[in-house]
Amino acid sequence: MLVHDSSDRRIRYPSQTGRSAGTSVPMLLCFCWHQRLGRLAAPLAAAAFLSCSGGGGEGAAGGGGSSVPDSWALNGQVLAAALSSDGKTIYVGGDFNRIGPRTGGFVPTDPATGFPLGTFPKVEGAVHASAPDGAGGWYIGGEFARVGTAPRSNLAHILADGSLNPNWNPGANDSVGNIAVSGGTVYVGGSFTSVGGQSRNRLGAVDATTGAATGWNPSPDIDAANGPVVILSVVVSGAAVYVAGVFTSIGGQARNGLAALDATSGTATPWNPSTLGVQAIAVSGQTVYVGGVFGMLGLDATTGDATPWTPLAGGIVATLTVSGDTVYAGGCFDSINLEPRFGIGVVDAVTGAVTPWYPGASGCVTKIEVAGGTVYVAYDNHVAAFDAITAAATAWTPAPMGATAETIGVSSGKIYLGGSFAFFDGEARNGLAALDAATGAVTAWNPNPVPDDPQVNPVVIRSLAVSGGTVYVGGEFVSIGGQPRKRLAALDAASGSATPWNPDPAPSALFNHAFIASLAVSGGTVYAGGFFTSIGGESRNGLAALDATTGAATPWDPNTDGTVSCIAVSGSTVYAAGRFTQIGGQPRNNLAALDAASGAASAWNPNPGPPGNLPDVISIAVSGGTVYAGGRFASIGGQARNGVAALDATTGAATPWNPDADGVVHALAVSGGTVYAGGEFVTIGGQARNGLAALDATTGVATAFDPKPDGTLSAVVAAGPYLYVGGTFSRMNAEARSGFAILVP
After folding, report:
1. Distance (Å) of CA 445 to CA 91, 100, 407, 489, 631
2. What are the beta bridge partners of residue 592?
3. DSSP states of 399-415 as a string?
């Protein structure tokens, strides 16, 4: 009988201990590019646009914020976003190169091509583990909140016909990373403390039919000083359940990270090898094969004694699969028995000798599955299939985007992939795309920006602005829309073709580098901020006004001594933020108000202060008589304010509004009585909010809106019933949303 580990196979290092409505008013806002630690190439966010001209959409914060279910996903981060003039298209820019419809975290693929197959309930989240139910279906576990339209908390049963089992819903209160099935019992391991309606500490068993917790409760534990219990592998063989992880007691006995438990009672058997650092288990006959930080080892299934089977691996072995007389090993290693084997290798199940079979791998292998004459392998955001005899690659070439497949299963002629990926293959879009503003589906618009060296400097779009039928784009490229354009271009909003507008920003000879960090359009003028010394045919330092028709620089010249990374225009005032000490002929620390006619700095001077000597204002939103500022600062407008503040547009003094963010605010948007803030924080407005919050525009208190992104927010656009957000996140509302999401507050 072949039994192998079907658990979460992400590489673990020894130090890891777990894982665990209001009517809007006219306003301006900008999301700005920011220099981390003074570097000149670290985009965080960039977009400037008039969000409502002569009126606007409506939006209100409330509840958790639902997501538009069919919005497409990207394989990178969104740094800039801008809405079309008619409100029907949302343009996004960043450092992605593919975009596609979301598939969910568990997908059947064609065994010949690897393409996703037919309709299947979309798993809204990541699938870390799967196990066949013996009838053509699958038990799946991971970090997800819904399967199709049905709520499911981290555990679900997919039937053989591809439908969700409506009667099986154990519900784990945290992630599930391990599943093993035996008869009428489903054994699960993970980060949960309850499952199937009962308290269970990281390890439990539920009925395969009802989902109710059984009495099986080994209750693994560990000294508090050593961190929480971690379960890395669960394998069932006969009457024993083998468990590996980080624990010091389990099943009522002292066991150090590896144990055999009675499959009925949950008590520890006498089997006690005391092998440390085990991450993978596979059982065949009388041998328990284990892999981990030590390499590989064979243990007697009865006594726990080490067998002569001791292949030497030059690194961590994270997954093992036994097929016949062969043991397949994967992980982060560079050799087996001193033979070069990078990430994957095969050894004889009896002698431990390395075999000639070796397909090569370009990274750490996280999962191996053998079916028929094919070996399926997941490694570093790739999945591949190889002939089990020749090691030649087959035509099966799925392209999951965003993350490595963590589980592979074969059933009824289909290859199932599970993981935290967002979509498969998709369409090519080099850092710039247009999406339907209501559905999130990509449009045919594709200007295809090209970098100077794709291998060294990929396309990065840092700033966007839309005016009428023109999309202005700033970023790292040398051609776009079918024409040579360096760093800045104007594109036809319908065709994507570059217009004749070509200001050609250029660097100084000293730095040989220039970039456009922020754009804003007002009437017939395009304001451009960034790092450059000439633009539009004139010498301009970091900030310029360009004729929207010709691209020539106007006489307006504030002449900053640094970098301008954010611009917002309100009436006769141009607000500029960035990294500078002089602008418009006056000393100003990183934030200023400039006369739109002369370029001279006004008396408005909020003077953002520390932390350190590098305070930053990264985002600005202007609404009526208030200028909202976000960034990295501890004081502004004469008051202590952390990360976000409201400033009087006349005096520059801070108003009483004080959400007091505990981190950096990268993006701001105002809609009616709500200020949306995105960035890198975990508390704001007096509430726990991870990177995205809705703040009452009067009190600064966080509203109930809490979509819980799992990464940094860099762009926020509020328009109509939607909130468009971009950043580095992969989940929103516990659902897969890679880099971009459309929320309905």
Report:
1. 10, 14, 35, 15, 33
2. 576
3. -EESS-EEEEEEETTEE
- Which CATH number belongs to the domain containing residue 486 in this structure? 2.130.10.10
* Domain presence at residue 406: no
Q: For 27-65, what is each residue's pLDDT tens digit? A: 344 444 433 223 223 222 233 333 222 222 333 334 566
* Digit-coded pLDDT (tens) for 578-588: 999 999 999 99
Segment 695-716 shows an average pLDDT of: 96
Q: Say if 621 falls within a structural domain.
A: yes
Question: What pLDDT, on a 0 to 100 scale, did the predictor assign at position 2?
Answer: 32
Domains in the chain: how many in total? 1
Backbone angles phi, psi at 601, to 5 degrees: -70, 135
Q: What is the DSSP letter of 153?
A: S
Q: What is the DSSP string of 184-253?
A: TEEEEEES-SEETTEE-SSEEEEETTT--B-S-----B--GGG-S-EEEEEEEETTEEEEEEE-SEETTE
Cα gap 186→189, rounded to integer Å: 10
Residue 642 lies in a domain: yes
Cα–Cα distance, 461 to 477 (Å, whole number): 8
| Structure-model confidence comparison of residues 113 and 250, the more confident one | 250
User: Which region among 173-187, 416-430, 602-616, 719-733 has the lowest average model confidence (pLDDT)?
Assistant: 602-616
Q: Tokens in use for 484?
A: 């040579």
What is the model's pLDDT at position 101? 87
Amino acid letter, 630 = G
Alpha carbons 584 and 558: distance in angstroms, whole number:
4
Query: pTM for the whole thing?
Result: 0.81
Q: Which two tokens stand for residue 51?
A: 């969000």
Range of the domain at 713: 28-101+434-744
In whole angstroms, give the CA distance from residue 184 to residue 325. 29
Query: How many Cα neighbours within 13 Å face the side chain of 553?
Result: 24
Determine the average pLDDT of the residues in 617-632: 95
d(CA 641, CA 684) in angstroms, rounded, equals: 12
539 lies in a domain? Answer: yes
Q: What is the pLDDT of residue 402?
A: 65
